Amino acid sequence: MSLIGVRDFSVIKTPPKSRLPILTEVILFDPVLIRDAILRELERGGQVYFVHNDIASLARISHKLSELVPEASLAYAHGKMPARELERIMRRFIEGELNVLVTTTIIESGIDIPNANTIFINDAHHYGLAQLYQLRGRVGRSNRRAFAFLIVPTFSHLKPDAVLKLKAITRHSALGSGYQLALHDLEIRGVGNIFGVEQSGNVQALGYELYMKILKEAFDRLKAGEKLDSLALATDEIVDTEIVFPFAALLPDDYVPLKAQRLHYYRRLSEARSQVDLDQIEKELIDIFGNLPPAGRGLIELHSLRVLASALSIKKMFLVPDIQIFWSDRAQPIKPEVLLPAVKSVAQQNNWSFKFLNRDNFGLVLYHQNQTSTIDQAKQFLNSLLQALNL
């Protein structure tokens, strides 16, 4: 609800002074690596958490670690212990008598021990993204570099959602990245019903992006004063034009090297609804990656044409060999008696040759003029048509 403007929220991105990002790594249960990491922390006078969220096997994993690192002073703790015993163990850890604490997720919140700066999370693929973020936040609470090791049994048999979670938590290790992780969590798990707690329903059927897009458009119309019962056709009025074109239109790998970044900009371009939005994205690309290559310029031009075509309810356009345009027959198409005279007027004013294919299906062929590129001519025609129709 915050993302579409129904509710307000604030993002705190400024970390405490001298705080450092937590180095996060996904590993297998490697005894040598685990021993080395624990000894490295102990040598600098720090302490270690080892999270194993299974009470039944907590004593066994604790014994295994004590054999692996006999130099450590180690104990285990969980929420079903008698309160006095749990308090005694935690006090010993806080006061530095223990330097390795094997524990369940009871440390997930409310624990602030600046001297503990290495954490292992066993079977990390079973945890939610928010839970991993909270557990990782138990270390790095001072000006000392902290380390988080996410232990998985194997890399090859992880479920797709688990891989996405682990990639997200390792990628977003910078301070103040909680908001980005929350967005990833929405994309992985789904939003569900905004009036309930289910992770199902319409969002599962439509996908997060489309669900949020439809919801935002309905909300914007409500703010503009429309009645609830008039919103049923809101999605029908959105025409995403399909364009068939003969030129390269993409962000090349050597221009935007990371796949995630390319997908991010492709999504933003596809969601752009105005030339202002496109200009902002183009400026950002140039600022970060340099001047657009020809294929990148073609991509911007293509979306610029799509924005114009969408405003005219055009369902499909072909730019080869001549410009062919097919209007949508969805909720509120432009009436033939209004469209046809406007097309004739614009074509005659610019000396363009044209032919209507089918009056009922709103088909039009605009014959290509050699002095301009096909896409430039198409944009010029659509701009003139918008003006003629006062849209």
Q: What would you note in describing this structure?
A:
- The chain has helices at 31-43, 58-68, 83-94, 129-136, 160-171, 178-189, 202-206, 208-223, 259-271, 275-289, 294-311, 336-349, 374-389; strands at residues 22-28, 47-51, 74-77, 100-103, 116-121, 146-152, 242-244, 314-318, 323-327, 354-358, 363-366.
- With 391 residues, it is α/β, with parallel strands linked by helices.
- The longest helix is centred in the last third of the chain and has 18 residues, at 294-311.
Compact summary:
This protein has 391 residues and is α/β, with parallel strands linked by helices.
How large, in whole angstroms, is the Cα Rg? 29 Å
Strand content: 5-15%
CATH topology of the largest domain: Rossmann fold
Please give the CATH architecture of the largest domain. Answer: 3-Layer(aba) Sandwich
Total domain units: 3
Number of helical regions: 13
Class per helix and strand makeup = alpha/beta
Number of E-type strands: 11
Strand order of the largest sheet: 1-6-5-2-4-3
How much helical structure, as a percent, in the residues?
A: 40-55%
CATH superfamily of the largest domain: P-loop containing nucleotide triphosphate hydrolases
Principal-axis shape:
elongated
SSE arrangement, N to C: EHEHEHEEHEHHHHEHHHEEHEEH
Distance between the termini: 31 Å
| Low-confidence sequence ranges | 230-236
Average pLDDT figure: 83
CATH structural class of the largest domain: Alpha Beta
Query: Mind summarizing the main beta sheet?
Result: 6 strands, parallel
Topology:
Blueprint lengths: L21 E7 L2 H13 L3 E5 L6 H11 L5 E4 L5 H12 L5 E4 L12 E6 L7 H8 L9 E7 L7 H12 L6 H12 L12 H5 L1 H16 L18 E3 L14 H13 L3 H15 L4 H18 L2 E5 L4 E5 L8 H14 L4 E5 L4 E4 L7 H16 L2
Parallel strand pairs: 1-6, 2-4, 2-5, 3-4, 5-6, 7-8
Antiparallel strand pairs: 8-9, 9-11, 10-11
